[in-house]
Design a protein that fits this description.
Elements lengths: L11 E7 L5 H9 L17 E7 L3 E7 L7 H14 L5 E7 L6 H12 L3 E7 L14 E3 L8 H11 L19 E5 L13 H12 L3 E5 L4 H7 L6 E4 L4 H7 L6 E3 H8 L3 H8 L10 E5 L11 H14 L4 E5 L13 E4 L7 H13 L4 E3 H8 L3 H4 L4 H8 L1
Parallel strand pairs: 1-3, 1-4, 4-5, 5-6, 7-8, 7-9, 9-10, 11-12, 11-13, 13-14
Antiparallel strand pairs: 2-3
Length: 401
């Protein structure tokens, strides 16, 4: 996988924030060396967050986000400000652009407070420093630049790179659970819901992580698993399955072989697993009239038997025997107020940055609304959650308490 093929969720997200007409877009263009953002003297030219995946040296693959002015006015301005604040939920490094002649305003100070509250590393960039009679000494978190004359732009790039999370801080999908030469069998159904000509992203990324661990990935369809295991000649370290065929795969996998799902692995990868296990058992406490939020991190064409909007509600109703209400969100949508919901059921989050997943988790925790994910919920409904957690003994112990 080349840098240009890096999934958006695995890119360092660099958000550019500030008031209108301070030169955010000019700074974005100067840092990236590309005309990514429209530059104009007219205030409010950037009306929505603009996302651009690219390679930014010396950092590598990043997602650049140019946001609307935080001081925008009117009803539309309020919507733009709301979108700007939502960008913070997926930002790894924040760049606050300030007009060097005007200095920081209350909106800038409020943003800095938000950066610190959300524990986002940030830098304050005083743009248009070429118009100053004398440049002040920069304090911590500050740098003086000129997008117009490209003064200190390279230094700014170095500062941004120094704030980005390193590879050593990132979790592995599966690499830490396996050893070189281990066999790992991946069960990947190819049905009408599968994308044409490719595997879905969690499957692609899991295969890549297995190969990086110098282990062997064996990919089969669900009806090929039993024969494959019989013919391997070596017991696989792990079987990983798509959640929708969990029951069949569990029946076809001998008890002495560890079994889990892509969805469970990604819950762990995104920092959701422990809470998701606790959330699944809430199914047994649901009552008639309860509302469940089913949230997906991406948007896609809905199939007639879509897992999020059709299968999960059906399985949950059949399991609980209750008259339940369901609401749905997808993509960047996620309600800040979760008080109307008894349970949140989230997808695996493969398309969301880890920070965004943790933001959604914290929203649920702060409002004391249980949260789980597709794979864990399906495993619980089918009575195989304990088995699917065997690769993670500490969580298995929590579930049995």
């Amino acid at each position: 996988m080349g840098l240009n093929d890096t999934p958006a969720a695995d890119r360092t997200h660099i958000g550019f924030f500030g008031r209108r007409n301070v030169g955010k877009s000019s700074i974005v263009n100067a840092v990236t060396g590309q005309e990514l953002a429209i530059v104009s003297e007219v205030k409010g030219t950037t009306t929505d967050p603009v996302y651009k995946a690219m390679e930014l040296l010396p950092m590598g693959p990043v997602m650049i986000v140019d946001t609307p002015g935080i001081d925008d006015v009117g009803a539309l301005g309020e919507l733009r400000i709301k979108k700007t604040r939502q960008v913070l939920n997926k930002t790894d490094v924040a760049v606050l652009v300030v007009d060097a002649q005007l200095g920081k305003a209350k909106e800038d100070e409020e943003l800095i407070s938000l950066f610190e509250e959300k524990k986002i590393d940030y830098i304050v960039v005083y743009n248009k420093s070429d118009l100053l009679e004398a440049v002040k000494e920069a304090q911590m978190h500050e740098i003086y630049v000129s997008a117009k004359d490209r003064i200190n732009i390279e230094a700014l790039k170095e500062r941004i790179a120094s704030l980005a999370p390193g590879d050593d801080q990132k979790l592995r999908i599966i690499g830490d659970l396996i050893s070189p030469s281990d066999f790992v069998v991946l069960v990947t159904p190819i049905d009408k819901a599968a994308p044409k000509g490719r595997l879905i992203l969690p499957q692609q990324q899991t295969i890549r992580d297995i190969l990086e661990a110098d282990a062997v990935a064996i990919v089969v369809k669900e009806y090929e698993l039993r024969e494959t295991l019989a013919n391997l000649g070596k017991k696989p370290r792990l079987v990983i399955t798509d959640s929708q065929v969990f029951a069949k795969v569990s029946a076809d996998t001998p008890k002495d072989i560890l079994l889990t799902s892509f969805s469970i692995l990604f819950a762990r990868y995104k920092g959701l697993l422990s809470e998701a296990v606790k959330g699944a058992v809430i199914l047994d406490e649901l009552k008639d009239g309860d509302t469940i939020l089913i949230s997906e991190g991406c948007t896609h064409h809905r199939q007639c038997d879509d897992i999020g909007q059709v299968k999960l509600p059906r399985w949950i109703r059949n399991y609980t025997g209750k008259q339940l209400n369901f609401e749905f969100t997808s993509g960047g949508e996620f309600p800040e107020d979760l008080s109307a919901y008894r349970l949140v059921v989230h997808c695996g989050g493969c398309m969301l940055p880890e920070r965004e997943v943790k933001y959604r988790l914290k929203c649920a925790q702060d409002q004391k609304v249980p949260i789980t994910n597709y794979g864990i919920l399906i495993a619980y409904i089918q009575g195989i959650l304990k088995r699917s957690l065997e690769p993670f003994p500490h969580l298995l112990a929590e579930l049995e308490e």
